[in-house]
Amino acid sequence: MSNPDSTNGPSVSALLCVGLFLLIAAVILWLDAGTLPEANAMGVGPAAGLRLISGLLLILAGAHFFAAWRKRSVYVQSQSGSSVDKVSLIWGIGGMAAMIALVAFNGGFILAATVLFTATAKAFGKRVGPVSIGIGLVLSLVASLFFTQLLMLSLPSGLIESVLYSDS
Amino acid sequence: METFNYLAHGLLIALEPGNLLFAAIGVLLGTLVGILPGIGPSLTVALLLPVTFQLDPTGSIIMFAGIYFGGMYGSSTTAILLNTPGEAASIATAIEGYKMARSGRGGPALSTAAIGSFVAGTLATICLALLAPVLVKIAVQFGPWDYFALMVLAFITVSATFGSSVLRGITSLALGLTLGLIGIDKLTGQARLDFGVPILLDGISITTLVVGLFAVGEAFYMASRFHGQEEKVEPVRGSLWMTRQDWSRSWKSWVRGFGLGFPIGALPAGGAEVPTLLSYTLERKLTRHPEEFGSGAIEGVAGPEAANNAAATGTLVPLLALGLPTSATAAMMLAGFQQFGLAPGPLLFVNNADLVWGLIASFFIGNLMLLVLNLPLVGLWVRLLAIPQAWLYSGILLFAALGTLAANPSWVELTMLLIFGLVGYAMRCWDYPVAPMIVGLILGPMAESQFRRALQISLNDYLVFFKHPGSAVMLCLALLALIAPMVFKGLRRFRAEDA
What we know:
The structure holds 2 protein chains of 2 kinds. By secondary structure, chain A is mainly alpha-helical. Chain A has 2 domains: 4-79; 86-164, no CATH class. Helix content of chain A is 69%, strand content 0%. Chain A has helices at residues 4-8, 12-35, 46-71, 86-104, 109-123, 130-150, 159-164. By secondary structure, chain B is mainly α. Chain B has one domain (2-498). Chain B is built from 22 helices and 2 strands. In chain B, α7 (144-161) packs across α8, α7 packs antiparallel against α20 and α8 (166-181) packs across α20 (435-457). At the A-B interface, α1, α2, α3, α4 and α5 of A face α8, α9, α18, α19 and α20 of B.
């Protein structure tokens, strides 16, 4: 946690990124406000909030660009070897993405959650193998049983679920 | 006297076996998540919302409060034994606490933290019980302009006043406010920012946002910084008990910690970090053993821990009496109330007196449970820290996905979870505070409807907010709270350049 970046705040490129993001958000809000009908005689309509926040985002975008401009001189030295482990990060994000795809294409919760668990464990350095798949499967099974059978909440179902809960 | 009658009645409700059980589950779960890195009380409440949907509101909310207190307590254990504070509010505890543990005085450090939390929590609950009804009497007379001004004040204090950067705090708040605009407008029924996605018409679920920012973002962050080493737990050696000298050195610090923590928590100032750090500084100034600071002074643990717990209770004053959340966990508790169709605020004290006073009385019981349960269980808690990070974070992500899907079984909701996770990761990397965004999402729509109602009543007179003394004062305070940190920063920079 003694990363010098975190105490000095975001770097110039990060500030520019955030500023650009805020600018785009401000434009989207403003455009959306234009599609709403104007308010009736009394009070303000739903568009007022959008315009207000759009203005706030615009000011913040400007402030980010200003902060980036003021920081431009330290740009060169702040790039000293980032310690981000990109492979791990991709495993983490990939696990979530795989889970979304499985849920979207009727893979069911148990399969999707097991894949998520295994991929995340891989991101933290555990080999993809029987151990992590086993723990993930057991956890997802228990969670699924508890939620769908005991609490009567619905979870996305797929092949494993249809076999498990077929008689109920 | 009236208050004591209510409180006695509340105590009877809190002592019902079912509610006792909920309180016990809450404090144990809270301690557990406080100890485990990566999950905090707000995330736990978020994940439990779908589970408690069909349960009794009083019991569920008592459990949420227990999680809040338990989390505060649990994070002090890791701060002392591991030098890794589970929550930001325990950073001050870690400074002296870990030194004490290393020199074999971990037991007394844990004890003074636990007893200090109990003392401060109990005092704070008494103050809460006395203060909340007074605040309710004032709040009954509030007009929409007053509420709007109060919310603006809360926005500013939560995001700007105590953070490390005004710009980053306000940016986080603005993102939360933007998310709050998404969905069907409650007053006119028109859809805003839905982009043709049906799920967005219902608005952004606070559960998904909290889980995405805290669980997914944190897991990504830890994964990207993972280098294969595990932290070393400092074993608890020697006696748990405090000596007579420890007691005499601790009690004043507890009271002072309470004195700092409760008011700062009860003002819409948000967060428990500020009072804990203030308390640490104060104890360091006042101590008769200045030589021990830096090598394990018991005052440095007793004060911040008491401040921490008192501030946690303090944040419930604006939450219960005004419906104003000022921390991420308080925001989640508000979402918990809303799930049961309850709106915290003056009306809650009238319409759901049983629930309110049962909840307040349960704080006494929860604090007592924490004291009795946790010291003997320290060994068990410490063993939990031996869970390898890989299993821990994989499990957290699994439960994050589970909680999100249980609330809304759709892949679109999961996609939002991933997006918020990436946003949380970026915010973590670039040091943007997360709490303002959550408070913005839950309080933004409320502020908007008060704003519009005020303009409707005043026939489009924008000066209405300055014509009523209450709202005018609060808006001026908000402006002051926004400008003050910038001025102080400028002064500091000016001096630094001067020197």
